[in-house]
């Protein structure tokens, strides 16, 4: 029975990695259009589940992304550099945004940005001029997320009910990777229980170990997955709404399965 469970777990991980690769090539340059939310609150109720924490990420440069980028929640927390193409208004640097929501009701754009991120694409002093356009032609590519002063963190969700149910939200995932599996175990134990992606950046399980908790993550790295181990993350008396530091810094750059990637249009 144990062998079958391990085999099924590895098969599930392999399937997730393949699915991630199948929708890869984020780092290639893509052309599209972007719009913006007039109110930041629209992104606080986003599909990634970051809530009011969202506006504190990436200086408020946030984005709702198309399903192919959101990837059923695996794309939550990914960073993209987006540059608009109106040379009279737009800067060469553009704006680096963090995916915090799903944009599933607008076929005209790959992203809908926070107004701060939208104005961030403009030359100095021309943010309002860019806002007046409403929609901008852009090119974009994925870039690493950097959290130099923060480790990967785990927030215990309010829906958690000790000792029978645990829901966590994963914050500050650095690098250019995706978390495709999460396991939890009692500190010092090798009896790992898998967690399921509830939605977005939220994972849960009804098989909650007793005592202090440790976690392990499968993160896309290279063309395969890489295990990250976070020891003694949550105390035995863990509480809802508290953020716990994993002690991990993820900086990997996943190698995507792109057959071709023409970056010729991306000139500094």
From TrEMBL:
<feature type="signal peptide">
    <location>
        <begin position="1"/>
        <end position="24"/>
    </location>
</feature>
<dbReference type="InterPro" id="IPR009009">
    <property type="entry name" value="RlpA-like_DPBB"/>
</dbReference>
<dbReference type="InterPro" id="IPR036908">
    <property type="entry name" value="RlpA-like_sf"/>
</dbReference>
<dbReference type="InterPro" id="IPR007112">
    <property type="entry name" value="Expansin/allergen_DPBB_dom"/>
</dbReference>
<feature type="domain" description="Expansin-like EG45">
    <location>
        <begin position="45"/>
        <end position="150"/>
    </location>
</feature>
<keyword id="KW-0732">Signal</keyword>
<dbReference type="Pfam" id="PF03330">
    <property type="entry name" value="DPBB_1"/>
</dbReference>
<comment type="similarity">
    <text>Belongs to the expansin family.</text>
</comment>
<protein>
    <recommendedName>
        <fullName>Expansin-like A2</fullName>
    </recommendedName>
</protein>
<dbReference type="InterPro" id="IPR007118">
    <property type="entry name" value="Expan_Lol_pI"/>
</dbReference>
<feature type="domain" description="Expansin-like CBD">
    <location>
        <begin position="164"/>
        <end position="246"/>
    </location>
</feature>
<dbReference type="InterPro" id="IPR036749">
    <property type="entry name" value="Expansin_CBD_sf"/>
</dbReference>
<keyword id="KW-0964">Secreted</keyword>
<dbReference type="Pfam" id="PF01357">
    <property type="entry name" value="Expansin_C"/>
</dbReference>
<dbReference type="InterPro" id="IPR007117">
    <property type="entry name" value="Expansin_CBD"/>
</dbReference>
<dbReference type="InterPro" id="IPR005795">
    <property type="entry name" value="LolPI"/>
</dbReference>
């Amino acid at each position: 029975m144990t062998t079958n469970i391990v085999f099924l777990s590895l098969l599930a991980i392999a399937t997730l990695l393949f699915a991630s690769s199948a929708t890869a090539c984020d780092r290639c340059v893509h052309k599209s259009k972007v719009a913006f939310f007039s109110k930041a609150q629209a992104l606080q109720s986003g599909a990634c589940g970051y809530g009011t924490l969202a506006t504190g990420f990436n200086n408020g440069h946030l984005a709702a992304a198309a399903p192919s980028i959101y990837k059923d929640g695996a794309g939550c927390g990914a960073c993209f550099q987006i540059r608009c193409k109106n040379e009279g208004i737009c800067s060469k640097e553009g704006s680096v945004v963090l995916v915090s929501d799903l944009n599933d009701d607008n076929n005209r754009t790959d992203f809908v940005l926070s107004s701060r991120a939208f104005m961030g694409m403009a030359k100095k002093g021309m943010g309002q001029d860019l806002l007046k356009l409403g929609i901008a032609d852009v090119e974009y590519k994925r870039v690493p997320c950097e959290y130099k002063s923060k480790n990967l963190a785990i927030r215990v969700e309010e829906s958690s009910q000790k000792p029978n149910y645990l829901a966590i939200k994963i914050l500050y995932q650095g690098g250019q990777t995706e978390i495709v599996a999460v396991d939890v175990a009692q500190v010092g134990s090798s009896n790992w229980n898998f967690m399921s992606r509830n939605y977005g950046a939220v994972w849960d399980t009804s098989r909650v170990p007793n005592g202090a908790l440790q976690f392990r993550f499968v993160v896309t790295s290279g063309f395969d997955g890489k295990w990250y181990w976070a020891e003694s993350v949550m105390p035995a008396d863990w509480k809802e709404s508290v953020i716990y530091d994993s002690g991990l810094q993820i900086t990997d750059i996943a190698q995507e399965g792109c057959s071709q990637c023409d970056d010729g249009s991306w000139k500094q």
